[in-house]
Amino acid sequence: MRGGKMWRGGDLTAEKFPRGYFVARGYFFCYFGGMRIAIIADPVDEQNAGIHYYTKYLIENLLKIDRGNEYVLIHCRKNPIFGKWIAERKMRTDAGTFEVVIPSMRRLFGGATLRKFALLSFVFLKYKPDIVFEPAHIGPFSFLWKCKKVVAIQDLTPILFPQHHIFISRFIHKHLLPRIFKNADGVITPSESTKRDIERLYGRELERGKKSRLPARWGEQGEMMPERKDGGRAGMALADGGRSKIPIKVIPDAAAEFFKPADTQKIAVVRAKFQITKPYILSVGTLEPRKNLEKLAEVFQEMRREGQDIQWVVVGEKGWFYDELMRKLSGGAAERGGNLEENIILTGYVANEELAALYSGALCLVYPSLYEGFGLPVLEAMACFCPVICSNNSSLPEVCGDSAIMIDPLCKEALKTALRSILTSEKIRASLREKGILQAAKFSWKKCARETLTFFEQL
User: Fold this and answer.
1) 3-state secondary structure of 389
2) DSSP one-letter code for 239
3) 443, 379 in Cβ contact below 8 A?
4) pLDDT per residue over 368-405, tens digit each?
5) CA of 273: how far to CAs of 345, 355, 367, 380, in Å?
6) Are both 174 and 85 inside the same structural domain?
7) Which of 94, 247, 304, 421 has the fewest Cβ atoms within 10 angstroms?
8) DSSP letter for each residue of 68-128
């Protein structure tokens, strides 16, 4: 918490001070009731993938709901959205909101590392935050200013599936994640699945001390302990030789508010733009091996040969190791005597408003991922009244509940059977739509922001 300062009475008057100052026994006492929270917001500037949306919508909603704490938003290039957020917040509260732009320095060899692990330390020294929050895994958690450090871990794919990641990503996560966990005071993750992965792989790094008492709010597994009638919390003391653990809080992501069923006119506009002329299935996500689109490409080609006159719309930017996917897509098109654009449509990046219309017009979203930390596209699809087929692994059963057809992503026949049931049965599609929109309503970014703020306050 931010502290107070006192001035001896005399030529100063209470009217000269902003809200939060008061006079007691001849002293002017200044009390800032909230915290100063620094957020490393680089993903808002640099990405269009899941971590971008997590950081963007979390900050947006924190600034809306929190009127008592100050925020320092650190990012890497000029971006008008930060000015918009700050201006809107000024209309709601007197609590300060500061924007700090430090260029990414990626053109300089080692520049990004220098920026994150050296220059940001001086920013923290200047602004003296109570909490530093890193939403994108690798936080600069060794710096000059002593404060609480919180990191969000969306998934551990570079560790669990290193073969699907480029060398630099594997190297950074392998060597820096253990240090991040050792220095963190709290960890946020979007699913119980990812929490289990963190505890399994980094249990030793999450431990603190040899003989200690846990922080008053947390149990041995990182869970919040219930309050006792006397104001304390049950289970606070550890036996001799025990270790306290850094708390891991599961806070789910959500679909943004504009993901909702689109009207027929908007659907017609996006169909015309992307030259979609037939009923279509949809895939959304960065084009990378973990998304398992090669398997879906094989199934799509087989179903086309069986007489299913459908198109496949693939939304997402090219990631890494996508050459095999492109080879299968192009090869399949050649086998059919057509071209790639005829029945397989690669849109690249699509703005969210258009994406909502693509979801709304699709026969279904097919999401056969090998692993997800959360799986945001399945919620977005459900919110747009789109049936979902997805994998039965990692976090996806948590996110979908019974509102999707779950399949083994490694089994081509299971994927084909699920897809065939969607294509041939309006009853199944209608049932999944109704269940899906109710499931999506259980998640919201405002709820995510409230739970995140509560976690910060409890550290």
Assistant:
1) strand
2) P
3) yes
4) 999 999 999 999 999 999 999 999 999 999 999 999 99
5) 11, 12, 23, 21
6) yes
7) 94
8) SSEEEEEESS--HHHHHHHHHHHTT-SS-EEEEE----TTSTTHHHHIIIIIHHHHHHHH-
Does 61 lie in the same domain as 149? yes
Residue 435 identity (one-letter amino acid): K
Residues, the chain: 459
The C-alpha atoms of residue 44 and residue 52 are separated, in whole angstroms, by 5
What tokens were used for 368?
A: 């056969």
Beta bridge partners of 99: 73
Tell me: do 275 and 248 sit in the same domain. Answer: no
Residue-by-residue DSSP string for 34-76: S-EEEEE-HHHHH--SHHHHHHHHHHHHHHHH-SSSEEEEEES
Structural domains counted in the chain: 2
148 within 8 A of 131, measured Cβ to Cβ? yes
Contacts of 382 (CB under 8 A, 6+ apart): 255, 388, 400, 403, 404, 436, 437, 439, 440
At residue 144, does pLDDT exceed 70? no
Q: Which two tokens stand for residue 151?
A: 């990191």
* Residue 208, beta-bridge partner list: 244
Question: 207: helix, coil or strand?
Answer: strand
3-state helix, strand, coil in the chain (%, to 5): 45, 20, 40
What is the C-alpha separation between 55 and 154, in angstroms, rounded? 11
Q: What is the pLDDT of residues 148-169, one digit of tens each?
A: 999 999 999 888 888 877 887 8
For residue 3, tell me if it sits in a domain. no
What is the Cα–Cα distance from 156 to 144, expressed in whole angstroms? 28
Q: Which of 87, 191, 106, 187 is nearest to 401 (CA)?
A: 191
Is residue 426 domain-shared with residue 449, that is, in the same domain? no
Range of the domain at 395: 264-440
Q: Are residues 207 and 65 in the same domain?
A: yes
Residue 340 is assigned to a structural domain of this protein: yes
In a domain, 1, yes or no: no
- Kindly indicate the confidence band of residue 331, based on its pLDDT and cuts at 50, 70 and 90: low
Residue of 45, 60, 147 lying closest to 103 (CA atoms) = 45
Asked if residue 116 is part of any domain, the answer here is yes
CATH of residue 81 = 3.40.50.2000
64's tokens: 């809306």
Are the beta carbons of 241 and 213 closer than 8 angstroms?
Answer: no
Same domain for 314 and 183, yes or no, is no
Q: Per the structure block, which two tokens stand in for 236? A: 């606070």
